[in-house]
Amino acid sequence: MSSIFSLLESASKRLKQNDPDFHQQTETTTAILRSSGVLPVKRASVNGAIHSLLSAAIVQAYDNNTTVDITSRSAGKFHYYGFSTKLIGYLDKAVQNKLLVSKTNKAKGALELGDILETYLAA
Q1: How many Å apart are CA 46 and CA 6, to the nearest integer?
Q2: pLDDT tens per residue across all 123 residues of the chain
Q3: Number of H helices, E strands in the chain
Q4: 41 SS3 class
Q5: DSSP characters for 14-35?
Q6: How open is the CA angle 6-10-16, to the nearest 5 degrees?
Q7: Residue partners of 29: CB distance under 8 A and separation at least 6
């Protein structure tokens, strides 16, 4: 179990490192999220860093063999930790598209990586 905030923090640090495999997996994950409509293609140049950070957090969860735990959906909490409040909506869309698996129809609780992400990250 890993909180979304700890995953985002770890992912942020790893994005600054020279790790070609991690960066490749992050780019692949971003492409999957964009092609499925989770991340908008419009304004990608403006929000690209947020998109990469979310993708990197998913890769971090995969590398740690853990779930993505959403303990709070509060925009205030995301803002408090210095992360974009848009992430909540992106996570919800990932659940709706079955890229992340939730026990509810929202990004809440322990989210497991869906089959598509698992398959591409294992490659």
Answers
A1: 24
A2: 579 999 999 999 999 999 999 999 999 999 999 999 999 888 766 678 899 999 999 999 999 999 999 988 899 999 999 999 999 999 999 999 999 999 988 999 999 999 999 999 997
A3: 6, 4
A4: coil
A5: HHTS--HHHHHHHHHHHHHHHH
A6: 150
A7: 55, 56, 58, 59, 117, 120, 121
